[in-house]
Amino acid sequence: MRRKLAAGNWKMNGTAANLAELEALKALLPANAPEVLICPPAPLLFRAHEVVGDTGIQIGAQDCHSHESGAFTGDISATMVADTGATHVIVGHSERREAYEEHDSDIRKKAKAAWAAGLTAVICIGESGDDHEANNTLEIIAGQLAGSLPDATTATNTVIAYEPIWAIGTGKVPTLEQIVQVHDFIRAKIVTRFGAEIGDMIPLLYGGSVKPDNAATIFEAENVDGALVGGASLKAADFAPIIQALAAS
Ligand code: PEP
């Protein structure tokens, strides 16, 4: 059985006051909850870790630098992330690939840095709207998988999140058929590259406008093991039904 994961990416939203949403989420977790991960802004990592305590909710960062330390003003290293009690870090989110011109080779280095610090890397891939329109999705995904995933990828050190860029924050969601096609393709690629023992066990998340009202349908796909959720992870009342839908899938 592959592990299921409901991951929330708060992006650059929230101050200490928003940790109340974590308190609320604790109370709303179903008894059979899958793995739950919240990635708040970096200044909240320590406090978020304290708030979740031993509830099983895991805390992650939204990015890390590929170096352990050094003259990189404004950046945080994977070691620093781990020092907060966090267990995961998102790398290669499309907003960072676009705004900071991060390439597959940068993502690969960040994933390795995450592992070296004992963190699980949530590696994001996904095609642009133009590539989607031009039917280039599978080609783009294949390139990102080949370039972003280090050779030492395992089912415990890595989670892959497929996030079509045109679906992020837009309310547009691919059809279930499209999600199935891409996730089956990713599964086949990683099984070929890493072998069935690893490739069959790496959790694959779908991300892009996942909401309480569409989560159950998305989780019908055999190779969707959870979701990376932006907007709907900010409020416990929105994220809890998504977690419940995953638990029931
Ligand atoms: C994201 O930022 O990773 C994301 C999927 O955002 P949203 O759920 O808001 O589309």
Written account of the structure:
The chain has one domain (5-48, 56-65, 74-248): Aldolase class I (TIM Barrel, Alpha-Beta Barrel). Helix content is 40%, strand content 15%. The protein has helices at 19-28, 45-52, 78-83, 94-99, 104-116, 129-133, 137-148, 176-194, 196-199, 215-218, 236-248; strands spanning 5-9, 35-39, 57-61, 88-91, 120-125, 158-162, 204-207, 226-229. Strands 1-2-3-4-5-6-7-8 form an eight-stranded parallel beta barrel, surrounded by five helices. Strand 1 (5-9), helix 1 and strand 2 form a beta-alpha-beta unit. Helix 5 packs across helix 7 (137-148) and helix 7 runs parallel beside helix 8 (176-194). The protein starts with a strand and ends with a helix. Residues 9, 11, 163, 168-169, 207-210, 228-232 line the site of phosphoenolpyruvate (PEP).
Task: Describe the secondary structure blueprint for this structure.
Blueprint: E1 5-9, H1 19-28, E2 35-39, H2 45-52, E3 57-61, H3 78-83, E4 88-91, H4 94-99, H5 104-116, E5 120-125, H6 129-133, H7 137-148, E6 158-162, H8 176-194, H9 196-199, E7 204-207, H10 215-218, E8 226-229, H11 236-248
Parallel strand pairs: 1-2, 1-8, 2-3, 3-4, 4-5, 5-6, 6-7, 7-8
Helix pairs in contact: 1-2, 1-11, 5-7, 7-8
Strand order of the largest sheet: 1-2-3-4-5-6-7-8
Helix content: 40-55%
Stretches where pLDDT is under 50 for at least 5 consecutive residues are none
Q: Kindly report the name of the CATH homologous superfamily.
A: Aldolase class I
User: What is the subunit organization of this protein?
Assistant: single chain
Strand residue content: 15-25%
Question: What CATH first level would be assigned?
Answer: Alpha Beta
Total beta strands: 8
**Distinct ligands, ions and cofactors found in the model:** phosphoenolpyruvate
User: What is the succession of H and E elements?
Assistant: EHEHEHEHHEHHEHHEHEH
Rounded to the nearest angstrom, the distance between the terminal CA atoms is: 13 Å
Radius of gyration: 17 Å
User: Could you give a short account of the major beta sheet?
Assistant: 8 strands, parallel, barrel
Please state the overall shape, judged from the principal axes of the Cα atoms: globular
List the total number of helices: 11
How is the CATH topology named?
Answer: TIM Barrel
Arithmetic mean pLDDT: 97
What is the second-level CATH architecture?
Answer: Alpha-Beta Barrel
Number of domains: 1
